Amino acid sequence: MARFASLLLLALLALSSPAAAGQSAASGLPAATMLGVASLYGAEEGLAVLDAGGRVRVGKFEGSRVEKWQFLPGVESASAIAGDETGLLLVVSRKGEDYFLSSWRMGESDKTQRKLKLPRAMSGLSGAAAGNGMLWLVFRKPVGVLFFAYDGMLLGEAEGTEFLRSPYSVALSGLGEAFVTDPMGPSIVRFRSTGQKEQVYDLTGTGMTRPTGIAVGSDGAVLVSDGLTGGLARLKTSGSVWDLEFSGEKNFDEPLRICTDNLSNRGVFALEARSGKIGWLKEFGR
Q1: Counting beta carbons within 10 angstroms of the beta carbon of residue 171, is it exposed (0 to 12), middle (13 to 18) or buried (19 or more)?
Q2: Can you list the alpha helix ranges (DSSP code H) found in the chain?
Q3: Does the reported pTM lie above 0.70?
Q4: Closest C-alpha to 180, from 244, 166, 194
Q5: 27/142 Cα distance (integer angstroms)
Q6: For 21-30, 118-127, 159-168, 171-180, which range has the lowest pLDDT when averaged over its residues?
Q7: Helix (H/G/I), strand (E/B), else coil: 50
């Protein structure tokens, strides 16, 4: 029975699409069948949202709200999005068995589709992160963590993925380290910027049951959301020492993805699958 429940939860995490309509009163972000959220324009502009239909919507910050939402033109089959520290938005789209990368800035495309050089046939793209000129992607079929240059060239494949059962999200630190969540662990795996496995953090017994979303704050702390309980945790690392701060308090409603805007310190944004909204915490841990 326990195994069945775990498999059912995994299916829900993979297929969840919020059904509610409306707007989040806290952030002014629109409800949709949203699968991903990424910081898009840093301190100057706003957020990007990937919906279940493969479309990407971008909006601009106006005070504490995000308004003037519009779809990126011509994007209809996106599988993942990632925003880097310069405000560049990277969109990964799937066509047949192939994946293609496009770049956007201020809502404008560079008009180039770059085919990603995959080492083998892969599917189930579940997460993306970008920074320092590198794009990290997480696949579930088969399990793989790959990193690419922005021109689509494969730079490497992370080692130690046998410690991942069903990877979900990935985030990068300022040093280029990659942190990958595994709801079925439950665990977080940290990789060096060159792809070597650096640490596996087993979350069993910590109170965090299904780590889904992950982001790295401006202070270097790793922020993790629990897609089952709705809580947020702060994970501080120093070498091989991990310190998890997790109150267990419910902050969000099925927060499958989270992101931070470190340049303007607007706080933490979370995709709430159950409510169909994006929630906002001005300060983490309030």
Answers
A1: buried
A2: 2-15
A3: yes
A4: 166
A5: 37
A6: 21-30
A7: strand
